[in-house]
Design a protein that fits this description.
Distance between the termini of chain A: 40 Å
Oligomer: homodimer
Number of strands of chain A: 3
CATH superfamily of chain A: Winged helix-like DNA-binding domain superfamily/Winged helix DNA-binding domain
Number of domains of chain A: 1
Radius of gyration of chain A: 22 Å
CATH topology of chain A: Arc Repressor Mutant, subunit A
Mean pLDDT of chain A: 91
Strand order of the largest sheet of chain A: 1-3-2
Largest interface: A-B, 56 and 56 residues
Structural class of chain A: mainly alpha
Order of helices and strands of chain A: HHHEHHEEHH
CATH architecture of chain A: Orthogonal Bundle
Low-confidence stretches of chain A: 1-16
Chain lengths: 172, 172
DNA sequence: GGGAAACATTTTAGGCTTAAAACAATTCGG
DNA sequence: CCGAATTGTTTTAAGCCTAAAATGTTTCCC
């Protein structure tokens, strides 16, 4: 179907003579589909977390980061890992400390740094939520074969690398 | 590498005797990678829209929906398409009407319904932004071959269908 | 040592987002 | 025709999120 336009494109890129505005409709569609998938799944997970555990997705995500770091993390670490702004983490942590899920203390070696950890309560609650969360994810992806999953992992790794490279090009 | 656990799993599912908590770590990793890709690209697009055009991503997204609907859309339509809540759209539209990009009027046949359209200004600005936006997306996905793109499209379509089915199972 | 640069965090101002309740208009079934 | 459901939108309350500026601390290096 796109044979004709492919030929034209090839001619352009071979001759390097004509500066045709290139067609990137496919990439655009891919991006929209990627976004749709993520939004769909995210919304589903958000709703289930709220209904089952009365917890928000950002809180859950933050606790997930801390569960992987028994010795705690600094706010900057969390901010980088979650790919959200610093200010965002400040508020999120504030509320989780308030509710007794997090412990926050100033580093003894560097008084700029705040180290946060899950409290006993926080860890217990997170583990309970995480195990159920894992089954939700499995169910959401249930129609994918193991091969599909592997292939998606591979292509998304490639996508991530490509996007990071592009981002670095702009912000060296 | 996972040969042993695979065997155990197979035994379980064959004998149907032991109720082992199944391992869904692969799907979980897939979900996290999907989320990372989307967050990465979304952040990049958000930043470029702000820097180049001083516009927010949600505003751009809303205008993109309307650009595809010359006869306008109702707020509900927009809300479904953008997969955001109704109340969200109300505020977004308010600000875009205020800035002269949107026109909003009550339907003549059903006075519950608000129909919104791009104004001339709104359409012109959107087109200008959209053409640049398309080159950003192309650049972000630049390392993917056409075959990669096709394959990703296929797998994400399958993912979307799977997730929708799962969501429908919960909310019949 | 002392200032400049770098770093970690918080604050600020504004916008986005959601779920749920409230309100308004239409449609449906008897 | 009329009350009950349904549908479309707005409001409300709370939380999330960002970019940029401000604050406090450390490091670098002359």
């Amino acid at each position: 179907m796109p044979a004709v336009s492919d030929c034209i494109e090839m001619l352009d890129s071979e001759t390097k003579a004509v500066e045709t505005p290139e067609d990137h409709a496919e990439e655009l569609r891919l991006w929209l589909r990627l976004l749709t998938c993520t939004t769909l799944i995210e919304g589903e997970v958000r709703g289930r977390l709220r209904q089952r555990f009365d917890v928000t997705l950002p809180r859950f995500d933050l606790m997930a980061q801390l569960d992987k770091a028994p010795d705690g993390m600094t706010l900057s670490d969390v901010s980088k890992r979650m790919m959200v702004s610093n200010g965002n983490v400040t508020g999120l942590v504030e509320r989780l400390v308030e509710s007794g899920h997090l412990d926050r203390r100033t580093s003894e070696t560097d008084r700029r740094v705040q180290v946060i950890r899950l409290t006993k309560l926080g860890r217990a609650e997170f583990r309970r939520m995480a195990s159920e969360h894992e089954t939700w994810i499995a169910d959401l992806f249930a129609d994918l074969t193991p091969k599909d999953v592997r292939e998606l992992m591979r292509l998304l790794a490639k996508t991530k690398a490509s996007a990071q490279k592009s981002a670095a090009r702009r912000r060296p």
